[in-house]
């Protein structure tokens, strides 16, 4: 089978290689999946660079999230051969993977591979952060990197709950796109001062910040919180830590906490897990939450896919298909 691997961490365009590898053999509790679609997430890039929370065991394939078709079921025949499925694993940029049966989810009827392969990480992170945030109808949420795939999804989910959403962008043309999705306030941080606009429009600041960027923008987002507010940090797109203002934390009684989907999922009961998937899949199938695809590339063209991923102004996901 073909797979995209790296033998050392570094920039994806420098360290990734396409090679032939033996067909994986599933253990009794595992399912063999023929992978049909994978989306490229920021976490994939950070993993390849050795900057993610999970350290790669080299050599390693890239990618965490994918969709595929069951080629061989586990010993209990938990999911029949031929079933379309959604799953996460370490290293999905290959033609076949073996995944423990309990981590494999049948794809909802009517969901395309291009949607299914991005139906896990971003939508569930958006759902989980909203559930954990304490936000109520009428509260204000500030989302950094609002035009990202995650940002667009959390805007749409928040609107379902009556939460007011402010978000940051760096391109003027992204304002109308996010407003159409339901954002109440879109701020171009290359042209506008974030805290000034937030205070003018909200009166006292936002209740919660979801920050994916870190660095100086993260610090400005923190300063946009109202007294007693909370920042939830789940990404570091700037690759720079947030310079925390101790005075703000003390005198405005602010809280800063991290969010990682894996940890949150592990904390859920089976009932809560089922509810999360049911809600997210219902959003996607009904198109109450829409996902965008910029372009699809065969896995063999991963270099072209990475170039498209890095393209400035991209408004949809880049998909690797088989």
From TrEMBL:
Limits of the Enoyl reductase (ER) domain: 10-320
Record-linked Pfam families: ADH_N, ADH_zinc_N
UniProt keywords, alphabetically: NADP, Oxidoreductase
Keyword Cell inner membrane: no
Record-linked InterPro entries: ADH-like_C, ADH-like_N, ER, GroES-like_sf, NAD(P)-bd_dom_sf
Superkingdom to which the source organism belongs: Bacteria
Protein name: Zinc-dependent alcohol dehydrogenase family protein
Originating species: Fontibacter flavus
Lineage per the UniProt record: Bacteria, Pseudomonadati, Bacteroidota, Cytophagia, Cytophagales
